[in-house]
Amino acid sequence: MTEKTLLMIKPDAVQRSLIGRIISRIEEKGLKIIGLKMVQLTEPSIDQLYDIHVSKSFYPILKSFINSGPVIAVAIQGNNAVKVVRKLAGITNSPDADPGTIRGDFGLDLTKNIVHASDAVDRAQYELNVFFEINELVEYELINETWIK
C-alpha cells in the first residue's frame, strides 16, 4: 500500500555531512522523495513534533539537541513507506542498531541517533504537517515505478 512518511535528518548528521548518504539510502530502496527542506526548528515546532515526549524526563536533552542546529525534513512516498523507512533507520538506540541501518552505521548513542522516522501512518501525517504545507509535497511518477510497486 502506498504511504507517505517523514524522515528527519537530525543536527548530528547535518554537522557530520551525512545528508547525501542518508538520502541515497532512501532512493536506492526505491522510495520516492516528494518533499525536502532544511530548517532550524523553533521551540514550539520541536514541542509539536515531539508532543508525545514533552512530559518525559529525557525531553529537555532531546529538545536541546534538536535545537542545536538545522535539520533536513524528507517527505517520502512508497509502498509500506512507514515500515520500510523505520527498517532503514534501525532501532532508536544506535549502539544496538544493526549494521547496514542508518543508525547502526552512523549513530553514536540514544540521543545522537542521526534520524527521526515516523512510526505509524497517522503519526507520519501529523509529523509531515509540522514541516510541510500541502502544496509543498510534489506528486510525480518515477520512470521505474512499475518495477518497484
Report on this model:
The protein has 149 residues and is an alpha+beta fold. A four-stranded antiparallel beta sheet has the order 2-3-1-4, with helices on both faces. It contains eight helices and four strands; from the N terminus they run E-H-H-E-H-H-E-H-H-E-H-H.
Distance between the termini: 9 Å
Name the average pLDDT. Answer: 96
Low-confidence stretches: none
Strand content: 15-25%
At the first level of CATH, the class is Alpha Beta
What's the story with the biggest beta sheet? Answer: 4 strands, antiparallel
Computed structural class:
alpha+beta
Encode the helix/strand succession as letters: EHHEHHEHHEHH
Assign a percent range to the helix content: 25-40%
CATH topology value:
Alpha-Beta Plaits
CATH architecture: 2-Layer Sandwich
Indicate how many domains the architecture comprises. 1
- What is the radius of gyration computed over CA atoms, rounded to a whole number of angstroms? 15 Å
Tally of alpha and pi helices: 8
- Large-scale geometry: globular
CATH superfamily: Nucleoside diphosphate kinase-like domain
Would you report the number of β strands? Answer: 4
Largest sheet, spatial ordering of strands = 2-3-1-4
